[in-house]
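Weekly sync notes, structure subgroup
Attendees: PM, AL, DS (notes)

Item 1: joint prediction request from the bench team. They want all two components modeled as one assembly rather than separately. Inputs as received:
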Amino acid sequence: MSLLVQKYGGTSVGTVERIQAVAEKVAKFKLQGHDLVVVVSAMSGETNRLVGLAKEMQAMPDPREMDVLLSTGEQVTIALLCMALKANGCEARSYTGGQVKILTDDAHTKARIQSIDEKNIRADLNAGRVVVVAGFQGVDENGSITTLGRGGSDTTGVALAAALKADECQIYTDVDGVYTTDPRIVSAAKRLERVTFEEMLELASLGSKVLQIRAVEFAGKYNVPLRVLHSFQEGSGTLITIDEEFSTMEQPVISGIALNRDEAKVTIAGIPDIPGVASKVLTPVSEANIEVDVIVQNVAADKTTDLTFTVNRNDMLRAKAVMDAVAKELGAKSVSTDDTIVKISIVGVGMRSHVGVASEMFKSLAEENINIQMITTSEIKISVIIEERYAELAVRSLHTAFGLDKAE
Amino acid sequence: MSLLVQKYGGTSVGTVERIQAVAEKVAKFKLQGHDLVVVVSAMSGETNRLVGLAKEMQAMPDPREMDVLLSTGEQVTIALLCMALKANGCEARSYTGGQVKILTDDAHTKARIQSIDEKNIRADLNAGRVVVVAGFQGVDENGSITTLGRGGSDTTGVALAAALKADECQIYTDVDGVYTTDPRIVSAAKRLERVTFEEMLELASLGSKVLQIRAVEFAGKYNVPLRVLHSFQEGSGTLITIDEEFSTMEQPVISGIALNRDEAKVTIAGIPDIPGVASKVLTPVSEANIEVDVIVQNVAADKTTDLTFTVNRNDMLRAKAVMDAVAKELGAKSVSTDDTIVKISIVGVGMRSHVGVASEMFKSLAEENINIQMITTSEIKISVIIEERYAELAVRSLHTAFGLDKAE
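Output from the run, pasted for the record:
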């Protein structure tokens, strides 16, 4: 018997039938003797409907009122789920974020949780009730309703699990776990039983849309065991846990391979190689509110330097315009762009204690005649930029090279 | 410059365009220098949609969760109206019932208001903001959301006006005021400039669906000047006010004529005329949860008595079954029913100080050869039961007889 916080996303509660299916599932856990706190999102489509109404009222809807509006989505779901639980003979009580109360700052539409009062929830759990909490929302010091931004329901789940010292925070979604890579690219991709918070962060930021980065960070910080599971299929999912629980023997060198197709490359060539030049190039980019991912700088023989960085493809033309101005000012030779590239990353806490992971990666790509355009490394990740047409080939060959293919 | 509480019902905020029209109207009042508290209902259709979802979850939806669910309807409207007000350059802030806070008892789905904290609203008004409050909802001592039952938004408006000592509570609806009788029956019906709370109570309970009885009672109790107006047409509507404001000279004897087509008659004849027999007849009716309206008892020459009462037409067959059992027990002669009757009432505080009102009414009906089946009177009302086919004729002749026809 343990205390579980379960979070069901918008698709899992998207229809009357699905809410009923979730209720049956929760009731089953309850019958097994677990204490349950269930966090739910708005029924899928509802948030978009409300946003649509808001935009008809005001071109830029007032953030405070936007939160009043959007928070109704989850409020509908908690009430319906409690009714469905009671229809299943399971005592339940709903809580809005404000009722819990989940105290946040007053940054409407993107508030951050400051504290959670677990008193009422604890009393309901002790009374044998399932507690159903509206995800994505809280309340500020003045009693105004706030929301945590898209995907905030994951954060609500993790924060409640941390406050209640739950045994596990289970995120139910439409995939059955975290995979070594995208199964649509590599059919041999396998589900990971476990992954560390750090690896999950790298995988999430690289395009695995399974979990919100913020929730993973939060779970890591408060050491909340986090499990990703399929809402309506059996299975143990993927447990996201702290590093120390792995024994080095079991631990694979590489946990997963991420592919990011959203990047484009901008190169400014032939700029004077003097201190502060990188800042002169990149400050105008950030001032234009363009996020930069990979940055590589190389010194050429003629005392000039080339600087290449990647941005989101949607920002490439704006970045080019900024660079054209910078090039003029600094007397650079040229500015060029390329949006037919991808970023491939291998991620694994195991690479900390293994030498030769990078060379293994480069060798594997070389064997497929794939040219590497940029390289960047972190403690548990190596990313390369390659031509887009080699994306799938590169992922497949690395998946095999690092021994990630499914056992027969 | 005065403090106005304005209430707009579901039809008045039923679409994006109507919410915008309400916003423009409110902004105009604000520009004229008034302080404004605006109470709104859920967009028309929304409450029914939510009730439908609830019934799919649970045959008899849990009342606490029903309130969590239904209260989202008004919450959506307050947010949208505030956005629309801001788009009109009008500073505004929304409040749910809980945020105000409107404290109620814990009788979910039919809670009664216990107190209102006007502190926050007052601060916003002082800061020049329009305050938009969700009607129909409150919060109990434990912080659970409650609702006041259908039509509760009128009550919210009146209660806020009482708490804030507002100069007027304006109920905006789809009629332009209270009429001397139904204009669809008597084309000469005219709008009343004023009507007393007591008259309004009698008119409302007799089928004028303009205002909720509870809101009128509340307004009378706390002496809140209440005005009924059309949401989207100009006009001064009808002011519902206390008796004393009328001078007896201006005061008409009869204010209005109400027609109720929902009644049916049940007669039990030839029961022993002994003390307690009325109770023996009527207790089983109330135990069957059937509401009785008019009751008339007459003694016959043979020491037996006939007792006739009216019930809602939907309850007539059930009432008949109850009477058949009673008749057997008491040895009554017969039980008969009639659902082709109507009740016509003339209402007016003026009849207190005028004799001959009843005889004027009976004479007027006799001139049209309309037979009166039952009569019942109160201090400010005389009701008769007549055959249904004479309904319109009776209303028209009384309307003329009491001088209510529109001046040319």
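Discussion: The mean pLDDT of chain A is 90.
Action: AL to compare against the crosslinking data before next sync.
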